[in-house]
Amino acid sequence: MLMLYMYMNYLMMLMYVLSIFIFSLAYKYLLMMLMSLEIMILSLFFFMFFNFNILNINEYLSVIFLVFSVCEGCLGLSLMVYFIRIYGNDYMKSLMILKW
Fold this sequence. Notes:
Layout: H1 2-25, H2 30-55, H3 60-87
């Protein structure tokens, strides 16, 4: 059983590293950046959840973390809708403040 948790932790770490990789490659589009951030949050949630189950710690902290991640996702989507209404697209180039 402990080996299963160890493999799950490795899987969550791999998922986190891959989401960072996707975040660094998909910097052109705001939607892809937001989706990779959500994958990061989801992998951290699973990592916390599995480790809390191993250590028999109360799972309420993971629920609170999930609530904050939902609020973060809602804020990101509302900012994306705002930027699309103003600029007409979700390209990060058009969102840059310092235009030369």
